Amino acid sequence: MSPTDLPSDTPADSTQPRKRKKRIALWTLVSFATIVVLAGVAAFIYVAGLMNTFDSKTAKLPSAFPAESQRPAVTKVGDKAAVNILLVGSDSRGAGVDTAEAGNASDQRADSLMLFHVPADRKNAYLVSIMRDTWVPIAGHGEAKINAALAFGGVPLLVQTVEGLLKQRIDHVAFIDFEGFKGLTDAVGGVDVDVPVAFTSSGYGKKGVHYPKGTMHMDGTTALAFVRERYAFNDGDYQRVRDQRIFLRSLMTKVAKPEVLANPGTLSSIVNEISPYITVDSALTGQKAGELALDLKDIRPSNTVMFTLPTLGTGWSSDGQSIVNLDTAKAKGLADAMKAGKMPDFVAANNLKNGN
Predict the structure, then answer these.
(1) Which parts of 194-320 fold into alpha helices (H)?
(2) How far is Cα 234 from Cα 238, in angstroms, rounded to an integer?
(3) Using one digit for the tens of pLDDT, what is the confidence trace for 241-262?
(4) What pTM, to 2 d.p., does this model score?
(5) Parallel, antiparallel, or unpaired: how do β-strands 172-176 and 83-91 relate?
(6) Contact present, 328 and 71 (Cβ < 8 Å)
(7) What 3-state class would DSSP assign to 17?
């Protein structure tokens, strides 16, 4: 399959039903893990019940990683290693999603990509959005849009491509279906989001909704349209990934509020609502999520930096595709900073603290 054989980026007709496994992004996993940590030892039986719900209702990826010989080494400082979780929002256009998850070629594409990176020192966390049309090398297929890796070789090839790009070993993979935004958002009573650019939605989730600049309270349906929109913006996907990060931060902040974490009924509702929407690698069990949460207990929205992998704007490939040109120098700088544990220096040098 060549890049030109891939399906069009034109959004699917919202009136046509499509079979999907329900999935949601890392912030649902982070929310669950935060619940496990903050519930405390006194609530062990209750927490064990939440873990059981997580394990029984989540789906697992049968194969998520490439061959060991094709992977980078673990980045460690002392006895601590960096933690990297790849978030994949996929758009299945006809083929069963299990095909790509099992490592086979299909017409499934990565609609959205984010890398959640926590350095070995555990002082901060970084959420790096990767533009889906970024033109990169893909093993065995030359150069193509990064979202083509999922179509060419399933999840293992996508992981291999991101690991090759950023020289970081990915520990876990979580799949996303943006439909999952609705249930979790409603479970926490809606989210207040600071809309940076006013727009009217063009059809994802809820057509014709106006989003004025400023703080807006969003229910699940309104949130879905917010995170999916790109056609209303002059810079398309660039603004969409910014909006996704803005919503993610707002949701994480809402889940961390005492009135949410201290309410057993709300917590049960959240875990029950989100678990069926999560698909993760087989090693990420409820117990592992709890262990991970304990390790990352000091990471909060306030010390999580979110930005887009630096690019040089849009352009055209030699075969006529509209692409996003990677800033290779800055991408290398990012990879070097991750490896050396010097992310604050990279963020400051490239003015990324406010989420460019």
Answers:
(1) 220-228, 237-255, 258-261, 264-274, 286-295
(2) 9
(3) 889 888 888 888 887 777 776 6
(4) 0.79
(5) parallel
(6) no
(7) coil
